[in-house]
Amino acid sequence: MRYDFDTPVNRRNTNSLKWDVAEDELPMWVADMDFQTAPEIVAALQDRVSHGVFGYSDVTAEWYQAIIEWWKRRHNFTMEKEWLIFSIGVVPALSSIVRKLTTPNENVLIQTPVYNIFFNSIVNNGRHVLEAPLTYNGQEYSIDFEDLEEKLADPQTSLMILCNPHNPVGKIWDRETLERIGSLCKRHHVIVVSDEIHCDLSAPGYNYIPFASVSEDCRENSITCIAPTKAFNIAGLQTAIVSVPNDNLRHKVWRGLNTDEVAEPNAFAIQAAIAAFTKGEPWLEELRKYLQGNKECVLDYVEREIPQLSIVSSNATYLLWLDCKNYTEHTKEFAGFIREKTGLYLSEGSQFGGNGKQFLRMNIACPRATIMDGLDRLKRGCEAYAEEKRR
Fold first, then answer.
1. CA dihedral 130, 118, 158, 186 (to 10 degrees)
2. Residue 391: what pLDDT?
3. Residue extent(s) of CATH 3.40.640.10 domains in the chain
4. Which residues of the chain have pLDDT under 50?
């Protein structure tokens, strides 16, 4: 391999949210990677730093072009320059959109279990979370369209936040599913905000489908939030994109983002994004293969050593959704027990809504040796928990 994903990077004492833990603890929870970003991005940032002046920044023509060419080449979807608005992050954009396009106490629909911060963006802005739980058959998730339509038809439902690919279950929604969602939302006058931040982290051989590419209904009734931050591990640089094809809708979103002061780039945001989309592809391809190797390693280990756990079938993200129903139906206590006994820090599932309380979420974007350390801790924690329950 051209790039090194095996050598551990010491992230302690770097103001890392993920690694601000006790010395003997191993964090495999929050969704950032323990790999250095692509060296091509580092070089672009070093070049920017060497200039030595860090005043106000503007969005450049190269930024638009880099994004347009990336989505056309990798995702077979041609966006137009006019659709694109810079934002400092997907979450700030989501919160701004909720504030601008809904009124207090209206419903914002989400398909649970789903990224827990969606709840914050809704509740913190005085709106009501309306869950349309995904259906789980013991192996993978799907959509209960009868339930979904009933909730979209509620006159109080004005916005739906779609997660594509879906975090935490790792699902890439197929074209037929997305088209059906788009048709239902158009019929019931519900705007779709599609969070596609994990789109470039599909497994080798799989490609995600941009929601706006599926049909005219999807394109004209949607807002898409995208970013290079997850795929290239540059979340701390605060760089994202909001794409809105519909002119009237785009004006409202643009007004909201600017009113909320989340549409101005810092000194490094534009250069980092351009470097990622124009020079980062070889690194990303190797990363995807390495992550798939990590996933296969986990699947094999769990099948052999912790057979009472099961892992939800997935084809995107570097997050694994661990079904713990054979140990407990409430993993908040389970996660705390494992952390206390072994130092392994995983995300407990209830915060994601739906049937999440029987799951743990595990971040496998780390060197293979760290994966093995985490798995050994997980095994010890599961064994100790089972023993504790038998007493």
1. -100
2. 75
3. 41-279
4. none
pLDDT in tens, 210-254: 999 999 999 999 999 999 999 999 999 999 999 999 999 999 999
Report the C-alpha dihedral over residues 206, 211, 212, 217, rounded to 10 degrees: 140
| Answer CATH for 41-279 from 3.40.30.10, 3.40.50.150, 3.40.640.10, 3.40.1190.10 | 3.40.640.10
Separation of first and last alpha carbons in the chain = 49
Burial of 252 (0-12, 13-18, 19+ CB in 10 A): middle
pLDDT at 389 (0 to 100): 84
pTM: 0.97
Number of separate helices (H) and strands (E) present in the chain: 13, 15
* Separation CA 36–CA 284 (nearest Å): 12
Is residue 198 within 8 A of residue 141, CB to CB? The reply is no
Say which CATH architecture domain 26-38+281-384 belongs to. Answer: Alpha-Beta Complex (3.90)
Write down the pLDDT at residue 1. Answer: 76
Q: Are 152 and 184 in contact (CB under 8 A)?
A: yes
